[in-house]
Design brief:
It is built from five helices and eight strands; from the N terminus they run E-E-H-E-E-H-H-E-E-H-E-E-H. It is α+β, with helices and mostly antiparallel strands and 141 residues long.
């Protein structure tokens, strides 16, 4: 399970260190995709395979499924960590998430999100503010 928040610098070659406590789980490779909230999602390959299976068999109209699959798979990258536990962030994803020379890596249970610092601070504030409202709505059902 991925938990926590970590801040890292990105080197001149676009490499981002993965937090040491997550490296073993990502040793088999990682899939990077654009996140909905202008971040980068990073999945262990096993988790990515499960998600990919769900996306290709979802019960939505075929035209919507084709568009969804194009949006997800055409913008995804699979890669491996180097010997020092770093991944190279592909330029299109860095641009999408506005990540330049530093990134915030957060654990989100089964995957990681990579954020621009300012955008993460904004999203974190919104998420924390709304979390209790969401929890309370869950308790009523």
């Amino acid at each position: 399970m991925f938990l926590g928040e970590f801040e890292y610098r990105i080197d001149e070659k676009g490499r981002l260190p993965i937090p040491p406590k997550f490296r073993e789980e990502l040793r088999g490779g990682v899939a990077l995709t654009p996140g909905i909230e202008k971040c980068i999602n990073a999945y262990p390959l096993a988790e990515w395979s499960k998600l990919a299976s769900e996306l290709t068999t979802a019960s939505v109209p075929r035209s919507n499924l084709r568009r969804l699959n194009r949006a997800i798979f055409a913008t995804a990258f699979t890669l491996s960590m180097d010997g020092q536990g770093r991944i190279v962030l592909p330029p299109p994803l860095r641009e999408y998430a506005s990540i330049k020379d530093e990134a915030i890596v957060i654990g989100v249970s089964s995957y990681l999100e990579l954020w621009n610092r300012e955008q993460w601070q904004e999203e974190k504030a919104i998420s924390q503010e709304q979390a209790w409202q969401i929890i309370e709505s869950l308790e009523r059902h």
